[in-house]
Every structure is written in structure tokens, then in C-alpha cells.
Design brief:
single chain, 683 residues, alpha/beta, polyphosphate kinase like, Endonuclease, Chain A, 3 domains, 9-stranded mixed sheet, 38% helix
Length: 683
């Protein structure tokens, strides 16, 4: 079966991010941000995926054979990374720096400073930087050097001591952490000169001040390095024991994890590199040539000079057309279902609903799944308020959400102290579903459930960037089954429930998807219209890819809208003739998952938290929920159709832009989506 590997496919996605940095139609500072996103993505890729591949290459030969060819995959991955790194550097040097210069913004290095600027920078160094520096000497007295993860270090090679030109050469190698956080950022704005504006890396401020830092030496070479460490947590796969303690222990180990990549300046002297290898124990295979500067994610903090034209035009979050701006949301949900579409529409309806539930004397219980929450979470604060008000609050907190473990530990402990019931999943299972359930006593002591089911996290911060869909509903067909899912989460060793409407992984989603695909295959053989439209972040599972190939060969039309990993190869003769693929990368991060099946003319639409990856289908609790109301199906269909028509930011499987035909007006889907939702009138 022909497929593209998960890791090479992911690198294709990051190449699409780099395309945005290269695109002249993207505002200038947004292009810099896409460089920052590319860099941040690649750091995580090395910390997780490359580190995992390196682990696999060290297994016994027989074991490696069962896992494919990790050594070959690692070579291919590193070769593609090297190619992209070169393109990244060229984009910065040959496109973005000239574009900045054209706007009278000059990102200088220390050699380009005028005499007056150098004098100003030296003064700035003395007053704001010098006291933040702590150099370490790499000599025979240092037996081991520990480098922090994702931290830029500057190295110094000092030669020719003053007054000893004829003496034997005495070199010294030193290293220090670049004090970005303590300094308050990576960039320093110099005084403007008329219309011209100047910026300097903090690195170069230190290069200017190096002579004062080491006055006893005539020649000083300053270079940069950065280490990325293996970020995988080793947690024993057992239900017993204190999971919170295990997570804390593993987080501590992550900080000292095995090196995954040491990026170094190509001008770094061999003597310095050898000293670093010797003191850290880093092997040659972890060495990767980078550029002069590392941690380009710091460009998120590049000065904006107060000019709006350097950024995307603002799209203020829209009020919802059918949810009330004031008054009871619970009452509004009883009357009809409502779809919410962050970031185009305000996410505040969710914490507002929770605050209302916390204050409502008839609300008896609130259940929620928390995978990633904001640093200052209004969602969790509302839950704390509800718990303190005597509501029965149950929070399923996923402690294994990568890079959010520490934050989730913090909120879990806060909830426990407030009296909430906090549930953790066992180590081998992640709860990735996005569910909220509110239980309320109605008149005559009847009980009504209200639910919010979503593709996105309960996170106000990411809701401003990630495109998601959420459903507010009081439909008993759905709320009853959401309650059943919470019962399962309270006891994951119990017999998995049988559900009619929700498709829930790991015990039903895969089988249900296979049944839906089978139905399309049967219909096309009967001469009925048969199609599948699949919008996901990632399509990687071999079993599902095989089923889509089978459906294509039977004549089912399949349209894939994939933002990230796409291992299926579309358009292959005799294999995937009936499959097309496109992916959208634009100002907002596409995050929603939607599955559409023709179903013989009675279209079925599911909205989900689950990508079609093996981990989502087999090792996570995921939920796909059907849109049962005609108006919500029509709304999602319209939004999906807008994305299908994109001819500005959509790429095909080979990362080629999909353009409008001659005479057709280009469609930019995210812009068109905002306009469509803005045009919805309050009913």
C-alpha cells in the first residue's frame, strides 16, 4: 500500500508554514511570525519525533525490523530538515531582511553599526545587559556541562592575551546563557534616525560589549548554540499508583532528557565545538549546522513600531446570531441547538455558560474534560466558583497533554482543593474529547442535561487563533450519551457503553467509520451517489487509509481537506483515482474535524475531536457527534463548501497552490468564512 510516512508528511506541512513566510501578500510582521512558527514547530519535531526515531534506531535489529526501517526514515527526515533549514535561512536573508529594509526597518548586526550607534549600544550593554551575564569557563576544572533545553547559549573563544603577543598562544573557551527572559526580550530598538528604524539582536549587543567583558584579550569570537532535548515522558503503563507523582517525576526528567539536536553556528570554531562535545557528551549524530542566530520563535516579540499595516487587519470576534448577548444561555439552548465557530465568533459564550451554571441554584452538577487550558483560565475559574457553591463538579483532567502537563497539574490541584472531583486517565489512554455537561433540575423535579461538544479545547487563548466548531445542545439523544461517556471516564475499566449517536474512541469510533465507508461502497455499486468529505488535521492510520483506497477503487468520490499530516497518496492510477486532497494554511490555524458521508442522499455529518491517526482511534478517548438538526447541518455544510472553494491559501498534496481558473474571482476561505458569519442575522 502506497503511503507517505508520518514524519515526512509533517515536514511537508511545516514547508507550507514556511511558504506563508515567503508570501508577499502576507503582512510583513506576520511573515516574521510564520518564521517563528516554523522554527517552534521544528524544535518540537526534534524533541518528539526525531528523538523517538533515534530511540528506535538503537533497538535490536529484530525489533527494529518489526517497526519498519527507522534508520532509513531518520536519514530521509534529516535530509529534508537540512533542505528546509537552508530554505529557511535564505527566506530570512534574501526576502525578509530586504523587505524590512524597504519599510525603513533595519535589523543590523554588530558589524553594521555606525560609530554613534556602537557608542549607544555599548552604553546600553553596560546599563542593561552586563549584569545579567554569567560566563562559564570550559577548561580542565569543568568535568561536565549541562545545557538547558531550548536555550540559546553564546560561546566565546578568547585568544592573544594583551601584552603577550610573543608568548605562547593561550586560548580560552567560555559559554554563557543568553539572558532573553531576564532582559525582557530578544530584540533591542536603537534610536531612530529620521524615518529609519533600527533593531539589534540581544546577541549582537553582547558581541559589541564582549571586549569590555573580557578586557584581557585582543581577539574574541562569539557564536551561538542551542540544544533540544528528548521530550517524551516515560510513564509506566499501569493504572495503580499516584499518576500525579509520576507526571511530576517525568517532567523533572524531561528537563534533563537525552539530547535530540545541538544547533550550532557554521562559523563556530572547531576548538569550541570539540570542547562542547567533550564537556556535554553529545555525539556527532546530534550535531546540526544552523545559522548565526537560533530560537527564531523569539520573532513573536519583534517590535511592531505601532503600524497596523504590518499585521493582518483585525477580525473582531463576532456576536452569535442566535445566542443572547445578555440573559440566560441555558434557556436559549433549551429552545434550539446553536453552533459556535471560534475564533470568528466569541468563545466567551462557553465560560459565560459555566458562570451561569455556577450561579443557578437549580444546577446540581457540571462535568467537563480538560485537555489544554489557558494560563489564566476563565473556564477553570468558573468551575472553581461552581464547586465552592456546592455544585458537584467533575473534571477529567488530562495530565499527559504534551507540554501542558505542568499547567494541568496546577489546575487539577486547584480544583481538588475547591472540592471538585478530578479524574485522571490511565497512563496508556489520553482523554482528548472536548465535552461539557450541565445537569439542572427543572419544574416538577425533572432533570435536564445541557451539553457543549467541541472540536477545540476549553482554552480562551487558543480560541483566538484556532478554527473550531462547538455545539450547544439540550437534545436528549446527545446529552444522554454524553452523560454515559462521563460515566465511562469515571471508571475506564468498566464495560464500554453501547451508543447510538455518538461515535466514541477507543471502543467504537473505528468500527463506526468502517461501517459508514462500507455503506458508501455498497451505494456506489448500486449506482447511487456516494462520496466522503473528510476535514482533519491529520490522516495517518494505515487501516483507514486502506479503506479509503478501497472506497476510491469502488467508485466513491473522496475529498480530503487536511491541514497537517497526510499519509494517503491521492490521484494514483488504479489506487486513488477518485481521491483529491487540499490543505489550508492561513492566518488562523485550521483545527476542526468534520466527516461527511453521502448516505444515499440523506447526508450524515459528524463533527469531532479526532484525527484519523492510530493514536486517536485506538489510544485516546475521542468523540464524534452527529449534527441532527437540519439547520446545523446546513451551516457546517456551508462553511465546508467555502473552504473547498479556496483558491488563495489552499495547497494540493505536493504543496502547490491551488489557483482560480482564468476569469474566476479568487476565494480566500478564512476571509470568506468571517464575512459569511458576520452576515448571519439574529433570529
Amino acid at each position: 500500500m502506497k503511503t507517505l510516512s508520518r514524519d515526512l508528511s509533517w515536514l511537508r506541512f511545516n514547508a507550507r508554514v514556511l511558504q506563508e513566510a515567503q508570501s508577499p501578500d502576507v503582512p510583513l510582521l506576520e511573515r516574521l511570525k510564520f518564521l517563528a512558527i516554523f522554527s517552534s514547530n521544528l524544535d518540537e519535531f526534534f524533541k518528539v519525533r526525531v528523538a523517538t526515531l533515534r530511540r528506535l534506531t538503537k533497538l535490536k535489529k529484530k525489533t527494529r525490523a518489526q517497526l519498519g526501517r527507522p534508520r532509513r526514515e531518520l536519514r530521509a527526515v534529516l535530509a529534508e530538515v537540512e533542505r528546509q533549514q537552508e530554505e529557511f535561512g535564505a527566506t530570512f536573508r534574501e526576502q525578509l531582511l530586504p523587505a524590512l529594509n524597504a519599510e525603513h526597518i533595519h535589523l543590523l548586526n554588530e558589524a553594521e553599526l555606525s560609530a554613534a550607534q556602537r557608542k549607544w549600544v555599548l552604553k546600553y550593554f553596560r546599563e542593561n545587559v552586563r549584569d545579567l551575564l554569567s560566563p562559564m569557563v570550559l577548561d580542565e576544572t569543568m568535568h561536565q556541562l549541562f545545557l538547558k533545553d531550548q536555550t540559546v547559549y553564546l560561546t566565546f573563544l578568547l585568544t592573544h592575551p594583551h601584552g603577550k603577543k610573543d608568548a605562547p598562544k593561550h586560548d580560552r573557551v567560555l559559554l554563557m546563557e543568553l539572558p532573553t527572559k531576564r532582559h525582557g526580550g530578544r530584540f533591542v530598538r536603537l534610536p531612530d534616525e529620521g524615518a529609519e528604524r533600527y533593531v539589534l539582536f540581544l546577541d549582537d549587543v553582547i558581541r559589541v560589549g564582549a571586549a569590555e567583558l573580557f578586557p584581557d584579550y585582543e581577539h574574541i569570537e562569539v557564536n551561538a548554540i542551542k540544544l533540544s532535548r528528548d521530550a517524551e515522558l516515560d510513564i509506566e503503563e499501569e493504572v495503580s499508583g499516584d499518576l500525579m507523582a509520576k507526571i511530576r517525576s517525568s517532567l523533572a526528567k524531561r528537563a534533563t532528557g537525552y539530547p535530540a539536536r545541538l544547533l550550532y553556528d557554521p562559523e563556530l570554531p572547531k576548538k569550541v565545538l570539540q570542547a562542547i562535545e567533550e564537556k556535554t557528551g553529545i555525539s556527532t549524530e546530534e550535531l546540526v549546522v544552523g545559522g548565526r542566530y537560533h530560537n527564531f520563535r523569539d520573532f513573536f516579540g519583534f517590535p511592531d513600531f505601532g503600524e497596523a499595516r504590518f499585521k493582518y487587519p483585525a477580525w473582531p470576534a463576532l456576536p452569535h446570531p442566535t445566542l443572547p448577548r445578555t440573559g440566560s444561555l441555558l434557556a436559549a439552548i433549551v429552545g434550539q441547538e446553536h453552533l459556535l465557530h471560534p475564533p470568528y465568533q466569541s468563545f466567551d459564550y462557553v465560560p459565560r455558560l459555566l458562570r451561569e451554571a455556577a450561579a443557578d441554584p437549580r444546577v446540581s452538577a457540571i462535568g467537563i474534560t480538560l485537555y489544554r487550558v489557558a494560563h489564566k483560565s476563565t473556564v477553570v475559574k468558573a468551575l472553581l466558583k461552581a464547586a465552592k457553591a456546592g455544585k458537584q463538579v467533575t473534571a477529567v483532567v488530562e495530565l499527559k497533554a504534551r507540554f501542558d502537563e505542568e499547567s494541568n497539574l496546577y489546575w487539577a490541584e486547584k480544583l481538588q482543593r475547591a472540592g471538585a472531583r478530578v479524574i485522571f486517565s490511565p497512563p496508556e489512554l489520553k482523554v482528548h474529547s472536548k465535552l461539557l455537561l450541565i445537569t439542572r433540575r427543572e419544574e416538577l423535579e425533572t432533570v435536564r442535561h445541557f451539553a457543549y461538544l467541541s472540536t477545540g479545547n476549553f482554552n480562551e487563548s487558543t480560541s483566538e487563533l484556532y478554527t473550531d466548531h462547538g455545539l450547544f445542545t439540550a437534545d436528549e439523544r446527545l446529552t444522554r450519551e454524553v452523560a454515559t461517556v462521563f460515566d465511562f471516564l469515571a471508571d475506564p475499566l468498566a464495560t464500554p457503553p453501547e451508543l447510538k449517536y455518538l461515535l466514541v474512541a477507543p471502543f467504537g469510533l473505528r468500527a463506526s467509520l468502517n461501517t459508514l465507508i462500507d455503506h458508501e461502497i455498497k451505494n456506489t455499486k448500486k449506482g447511487k451517489e456516494a462520496y466522503i468529505t473528510l476535514k482533519v488535521n491529520a490522516l495517518q492510520d494505515p487501516g483507514m487509509i486502506a479503506r479509503l483506497y478501497e472506497a476510491s477503487q469502488a467508485g466513491v468520490r473522496i475529498e480530503l481537506l487536511i491541514r497537517g499530516i497526510g499519509s494517503l497518496v491521492p490521484g494514483e492510477a488504479g489506487l486513488s483515482d477518485n481521491i483529491t486532497q487540499r490543505g489550508l494554511v492561513d492566518r488562523n490555524l485550521e483545527h476542526a474535524r468534520i466527516y461527511v458521508f453521502a448516505n444515499g442522499g440523506e447526508e450524515k455529518i459528524y463533527v469531532s475531536s479526532a484525527d484519523w491517526m492510530t493514536r486517536n482511534l485506538d489510544r485516546r478517548v475521542e468523540v464524534a457527534f452527529p449534527l441532527l438538526a437540519e439547520n446545523t447541518r446546513a451551516e457546517i455544510r456551508q462553511l465546508l463548501n467555502i473552504e473547498r472553494q479556496d483558491t488563495v491559501k489552499a495547497r494540493d498534496f505536493n504543496n502547490e497552490f491551488i489557483r482560480a481558473a482564468a476569469g474566476e474571482k479568487p476565494v480566500r476561505a478564512q476571509e470568506a468564512t468571517y464575512k459569511y458569519l458576520k452576515g448571519l442575522k439574529k433570529k
